Amino acid sequence: MFATSSDILKWADSQHVAIGGFNVYNFEGIKAVIEGAEEEETPIIIQMHPASLQRGAKPLMAMALEAANLSKVPVSIHLDHVDSLEVVKEGIDFGLQSFMPDGSIHNYQGNVEFTRLCARIIKDNEGFVEGELGRLSGTEDGTTIENYKSLLTDPLQVIDFVSSTTIDALAVCVGNVHGKYLSEPKLDFQRLYRIREATEIPLVMHGASGLPNEIISECIRAGISKFNVNTELRQAYILGMSEAVDQGMSDLISVMNLCIVKMREVVVSKIRQYSFI
Predict the structure, then answer these.
(1) For residue 145, what pLDDT is reported?
(2) Domain total for the chain?
């Protein structure tokens, strides 16, 4: 059943767990995420990156929305890392209600202005807004942010940023990175707890791939309500394709089903990880 991101995050808060925001790029991804959520009887958020819309556009959004409507569990559709008003308007015109305007490339005031402008349009259409304060290092969907350009979230800016932009959820940067961690993850939990003290809105962590259970649990205790999952789902899809080639599969449906199985295993694993404190 289709649900709003706000309702799903409220449910997570009531259960003292976190929600998975799973990035998808095709039919197999959508099917794997929803099947995993139904297996665990847990609400989830399906996310799409604007880069994927350049390849799939309206048919991809239509598939995701219809799959959400048919799901046995609450499912929201969220447009991730939006960098222009045009993409926001396109998503709204097609029926999307959940967005992450990403103004992290700008300085603080530029981030505020971009996020606030997007939020005004989204909220005029009764939508949900996630903003990011700070900037993650790492690589995602062809975009690489060098470590020296990454900025940690400043707890002293949180109150002003949230009130000025009217966002509903805040993506934080506390040492988390997009893509693979090339060394042992070292998150700044003191900073994360200070951010939690500054605002009551849900906190979101991008770049959670590969984090061990103890770090995930501590993040949830510190206020993280949503973890974004991208890298590990993509790896699972590629693994399925690789195994299909190794096995000499020639039937496309069998190849697709193998990829779905691999991604669904990741979804189930993440849902269980985010539910355990």
Answers:
(1) 44
(2) 1
Instruction: For the chain, list residues with pLDDT below 70.
Output: 53-57, 136-150, 178-184, 277
User: Are the C-beta atoms of residues 5 and 260 closer than 8 Å to each other?
Assistant: no
Q: Which of 80, 83, 141, 160 is catalytic?
A: 80
Query: For residue 208, what are the contacts with CB-CB under 8 A and spacing of at least 6?
Result: 176, 216, 219, 227, 228, 229
d(CA 59, CA 213): 36
**Total-model pTM:** 0.91
Task: Tell me the residue range of the domain where 130 lies.
Answer: 5-274
CB atoms within 10 A of CB 41: 9
Rounded to 5 degrees, φ, ψ at 4 are -85, 155
Of 125, 187, 138, 132, which Cα lies nearest the Cα of 162? Answer: 132
* Average pLDDT of every residue of the chain: 90
Q: What is the pLDDT of residue 223?
A: 94
Per the listing, tokens 């206020």 go with 223
What DSSP designation does 254 have?
A: H
The answer to whether residue 7 is catalytic is no
Q: In angstroms, rounded to a whole number, what is the distance separating the alpha carbons of residues 268 and 266?
A: 6
Residue 50 · residue 82 · CB < 8 Å? yes
CATH of the domain at 31: 3.20.20.70
> What is the rounded CA–CA span in Å between residue 179 and residue 8?
25
CA distance 171 to 182: 22
